[in-house]
Amino acid sequence: MNKNFYITTPIYYPSAKPHMGHAYSSIIADFFARFKRIQGYKVFFLTGTDEHGQKIQRAAENKNMDPKAFCDEISKTFFDLSKTLNLSNDDFIRTTEERHKKSVENLWNILEKKNEIYLSKYSGWYSVSDEAFYSEEEIDTKNNIKISKISGSQVEWVEEESFFFKLSKWQEPLLKFYNENPDFILPVSRRNEVISFVKSGLKDLSVSRKSFSWGIKVPSNNDHVIYVWLDALTNYISALNYPDTNNSLYKSYWPATLHLIGKDILRFHAVYWPAFLLAANLPPPKRVYGHGWILSGEEKMSKSKDNILDPLEIIDTYGLDPLRYYLIKEVSFGNDGNISKEKLENCINSDLANNYGNLCQRVVSFIEKNLDLKVPNNYSLINEDENVLKIYNESFNKLIDSIDTQNVNFYVNFIQEQLFSANKYFNDQEPWNKKDDAVRLNTILYVSLELIRKISILLYPIIPNSSLKALKIFNINEDQIDFNSIKIHENIKKNDKLNKISIMFKKID
User: Fold this and answer.
1) Could you read off the pLDDT of 159-171 as tens digits, one per residue?
2) What is the pLDDT of residues 386-423, one digit of tens each?
3) What angle do CA 82, 358, 328 make, to 5 degrees?
4) What is the four-CA torsion angle of 127, 159, 267, 260, rounded to 10 degrees?
5) Hey, how many other C-beta atoms are within 10 angstroms of the C-beta on 204?
6) Domain span at residue 475?
7) What gap in Å lies between CA 451 and CA 454, rounded to an integer?
8) Beta bridge partner(s), residue 226
9) Is residue 202 part of a domain?
């Protein structure tokens, strides 16, 4: 079995500072990456910034800055955010890097050599904000301004010489590819949307611009810059040192296991990207998952609407792990979601402080007072004990499947149920009333420790810092976390010394 896993976030467009939508994509990708690592996979996790195009050029001009200097400044905020969010990414790519330029030029040359690109003239609607072309049917008029029905962004009429990619030629091959790979696009609603779009008829795609200069030059014609999406999408292979397809990174990780993206850029990833790759005789990624938006009120966040939620402000107020937990638990994956102060504080108080942190402290404190902080050495499991432990073995394959099908909701619901079950077990068994029965007392405490260990392993991909605090009870370090060990009933060694634990989550008054 292939034990390599390659996951990517969208590369973020640094025309303004990061917002909660960027944080959400990154945190979700990190969740999957961390899970696959503790499952025993070799993981390559990529994020980065998309730094070319007219939108960037205009933003730089508005600040009287050189585009590269502007990108250096804004890209750093995204790089810093990856550290603030405690992402475990293996690489951070910028499309202004030489390694990326080399990859894009090579892909262009292949497409041109295969007669997939031709020179003509483009006339049509273009959104600088989306860096996207739209057909007449996709345009609406609002307050005498032409906008995209899809994104709501303003569009402008463009007429200029352009190179075109023969996208229309790939309509039937794409439909065949979708049919043969039914899980290529998830969730199913996004797959249906893409298939409907492709079936409605694909037109050849303008893949160069002549009216601005900030981008990678077309190798055969320096009057043109390569369309920002053909440029940007190539990052997923340029990070693997493409065009050298014999290097270990490319051979190990391409095709990518999962492109995780926002639903607004689905067309680029699920239509244009596989078409470019198939035309170049390269394998498409295995899956594109289009998740929902993090809304500000009822609207998508954008600089133009001045409704951006700053993840740094939330982290400063509530902490990183509570934000990670909230976004993964409260936003139904695949759907839109929003941040509510009330729900966030409820998550912290109920799920994290009471159900998890308090459980860890109660059990460890009780063992400190009664067993000198040592793992019980004389216990005997009965049905009540077996019942709360066996669910992990019984659900083991379902948990893995939930990750592999991006069913985040199942995974999180399972953790919530087990937290409730562990707290109920400890309360119902009343170890404080079993001090005259050493074996039963030891058994209750042993089982409670095992439940804390298993739950902490499950929580590690979601709240890594906090779960590591709990795992230090058992002297388990980050590189020792093994998801497979949740199947085992008796994993903690008798008489092992345990460590105290401080308050993990402060309640919000």
Assistant:
1) 889 999 999 999 9
2) 999 999 999 999 999 999 999 999 999 999 999 999 99
3) 35
4) -60
5) 17
6) 341-487
7) 5
8) 208
9) no
The domain that holds 434 is classified in CATH as 1.10.730.10
Cα dihedral 128, 132, 135, 138, rounded to 10, equals -80
Rounded to whole angstroms, the Cα distance separating 429 from 432 reads 9
Name the token pair of 377: 């050495």
> In the 8-state DSSP scheme, what is residue 177?
H
For residue 101, being part of any structural domain is answered with no
* C-beta separation of 46 from 91 below 8 A: yes
Structure tokens at 367: 């063992």
Neighbours of 387 (CB within 10 A): 12
Among the listed residues 86, 100, 2, 4, the one whose alpha carbon sits nearest the alpha carbon of residue 48: 100
- Per-residue pLDDT reduced to its tens digit, 14-27: 877 788 889 999 99
What are the C-alpha distances in Å from 265 to residues 109, 184, 269, 270, 487? 25, 15, 7, 9, 39
Kind and range of the H or E run holding 388: helix 383-394
Q: Count up the domains in the chain and report the number.
A: 1
**Cβ(30)–Cβ(45) under 8 Å?**
yes
Q: Mind listing the pLDDT tens digit for each residue in 40-56?
A: 999 999 999 999 988 89
**End-to-end C-alpha distance for the chain, whole angstroms:** 50
Q: Does the residue 479 lie in any domain?
A: yes
Nearest to 51 by CA among 312, 316, 231: 231
Measured CA to CA, the distance from residue 80 to residue 348 in angstroms comes to: 25
Q: What angle do CA 64, 67, 71 make, to 5 degrees?
A: 115
Q: Is the dihedral of CA 494, 497, 499, 500 positive or negative?
A: positive
Rg, the chain, Cα only: 26
What is the Cα–Cα distance from 172 to 33, expressed in whole angstroms? 34
The answer to whether position 190 is within a domain reads no
